Amino acid sequence: MILYALSFFAANAQSEIAMPKIPLNRQLFHDNIDNSQKAILHLNSKTDTIFTATDDFDINLQLTQFLRVRIDNMEALIEKDSSIDESAKFKWLRGINDMLTDFINDYKLKKIKGILLGDLITAYEAAMIKEMHHQPITPVIEENEMEIGKILVLNFSLKDNSGINDSKDLLVLKACERNPDNILTILSQHPAVPFADSLLIIMAYRKPEEFYNYASAPDALGKKIKAVNDPLVRTISQMAAMPTGRFFFPFLDEIYKKNLNIDSLQTLAGNETAYYQLLVKTEINYAARAQKGDTAFVMHVLTEKLRSKAIEIYIDEINALHDEKSDAVRFKKIDSLSAQDLYYLCVLGEEEIYTSSYLGVYKRIWQRMTVERGDTLLRLVNNDFYKKFIRMAAAYNVLGDFLQRMDQNGAERLMKNFVNDLEKNSTLEDAVDVADSYASISDTALRKLLLTQIKNNQQQNKKSGNLRGQKIYALLNTIFTSMDSSKSDALAALGIPPMYYMPLSLLKDSSGKVIIQQFFYGDKDGVNIFNSFLRTYTNANWKITRKPEWAEVRSVKGTPIIIYANKPLDTEKELDAEAQKDLGFYLDSLNANPTVILHRGHSYYVKSTIQQLPSSAKLVLLGSCGGYHSLNQVLTICPAAQIIASKQVGTGVVNITLIEAITETLRQGKDLNWPLMWQNLQTRFVGDTKEKFDDYVPPHKNLGAIFIIAYNNSIKE
How far is CA 700 from CA 80, 196, 515, in A? Predict the structure, then answer.
């Protein structure tokens, strides 16, 4: 009778089998199944008469037919089969209902798609046949989706199947195949699966950093890893077992290839300079390999360790001595470093290094070289981060000096390479570097060279069909051409707000006032520049009101303007930060949204100002050293803000002159015309002050910022 019933399943899949009389003691089981069938029909709507698993009516109809006919037929055949004893009938009926209720629960939790219902029912039938024949259900699990397999291996009627353990292992393997990035997480929950060793070896080579974390864990998987016989796994396990494993981990590739050994590295534990220099040497070696398509294990880990050590050991100390008058004292920490060592202080310390620190390090690079040639320096570091070095040199106004340290052909070739392959980078960093650098170049011939190469690259990307490349180079071409022609029409076509001027109307609030917030910091210089600021506005056009934590400067004639400036209270006690916070709360209580933000203070305070930037800001002046390097951070908060910043040394005289020119122009009811304002300001500075003013970049020449805005606009479109 069993053989008849089993063959009948397949032959009469869609034909309804008459249900025999159901004994009273099993009626409840059939009722439960009926209720589960109805619950599935109503999963998406209580008024549904078919299971709406998809947007296709025909598919939904077929799934509903499966649910009704196939399930009813299974019930009928179980009842009709005289070879199935009473206990087995209970088991199979309960199994059917469990299968349906598990589907309902998983569907509600979005763990299974509705379209798999038919496959689930068919798979349960197949597993049922296997179990009745005393055969393992593993082939059924193999043939079906993981979601179906999970329901089957947990089913009451199949829990004692001879293949249940193999089936569960198979589901772990399916989970690993579907989620290759989460293999180690999956294995940590199932460390005893027979294929664990093979997958662990794969993951050691694919994700050594994550593998290290699991190898160091004192759990079952950690023990399993230690027992795997593979050279890379053994190397990582050895490091993970050591308290100082992270100290050695950046050199994993060199240790694995036996170019270094852990015992020799132990001697560097107390020598921070030697450790830093080994990081530099290894980074340079890895850069050469990467150019040949050979990426070292955890290369990014080594680079990040090099970055952190550059800042922690050297840059932080040089920065901290910024007030030290003697360069010999300030830069003593780097006396023992080579030109290559100093190079990485520049390119990896970009976000932390002060302007004066950078210029001091840059000067010492050449002092360490026998032949002071730019191309020689880049060869020494295998051109690692050379685009970053060029951008920073441009930003700090030493690009001309750098290019003059090589022959003309070499300089031209280098700059062409600088603007090549921008489309191959997954981020916009290289493209922004190019835009920033172009704005800093005054050499007409070099500008022409870069613009020609950008146009060539645009055409090459057009021929190859690279849309991202076309977009990047087209935007750069438009922006650079616009800058050279001093016309904003092209920028307007890119959806960029006017950069050549700031309309007064954009700065006014709904009541017609311009709200300006100025950030001061409570060191010695901060007190002086705050007092200088107040003296500038002590005239008939302005009224000053002093509050405990800030001052309010209001125009009494012309356009209503209010400047809120926190007092430079003691920074050691963080009273200046408290004043800024309280002023922010006060402005919020007034529903006053500043559209102009003025940062006054050293570059190490810029982060604090940026963290407090209101999204309402339309114009931001970063009046500190190197404020130019914070453009992207500002634009993340204020996507369309115009930014004025210095590439090198910010100075109080220039800042207050700029601020006075901006506020006076607005008070007179005029728009801010940047080219005209810069032309007029040029005549107000002489000598050293004029040189410092020349380092300030007006909004219409902030090409990196303009590029970011233009690219983001193009993505939205």
Answer: 86, 59, 23
Segment 100-152, tens digit of pLDDT: 999 999 999 999 999 999 999 999 999 999 999 999 999 999 999 999 999 99
**Can you name the residues that pair with 596 across neighbouring β-strands?**
516, 619
Question: Strand 619-623 and strand 596-600: pairing?
Answer: parallel
Which string of b and e fits 452-480 if b means at least 16 CB within 10 Å? ebbbebbeebeeeebeebbbbbbbbbbbb
One domain for residues 135 and 222 = no
Is 715 part of any domain? no
| pLDDT digits 0-9 by tens, 15-42 | 788 888 999 999 999 999 999 999 999 9
Residues 404 and 437 in one domain: yes
- Tokens 């204020």 belong to 638
Nearest residue to 478 via CA among 191, 707, 229, 192: 707
- 538/542 Cα distance (integer angstroms): 7
Indicate the residue among 115, 146, 178 that finishes a domain: 178
Euclidean distance between CA atoms 604 and 602, whole angstroms? 5
End position of a domain, from candidates 151, 178, 205: 178
Quote the strand ranges of 419-535, DSSP E: 501-502, 514-519
Q: Tell me: do 198 and 312 sit in the same domain.
A: no
CB burial of residue 486 (10 Å; 0-12, 13-18, 19+): exposed
DSSP labels, 420-446: SSGGGSSSSHHHHHHHHHHHH---HHH
| CB neighbourhood size of 505 (10 A) | 8
Q: Which domain holds residue 264?
A: 194-271
Round to whole Å and give the CA distance between 703 and 490. 13
Q: Tell me, yes or no, whether 185 lies in a domain.
A: no
Nearest to 107 by CA among 57, 66, 52, 189: 52
Question: Does any domain span residue 30?
Answer: yes
- Say if 577 falls within a structural domain: yes
At residue 637, the 3 state secondary structure works out as helix
The total domain count for the chain is: 4
Same domain, 610 and 658: yes
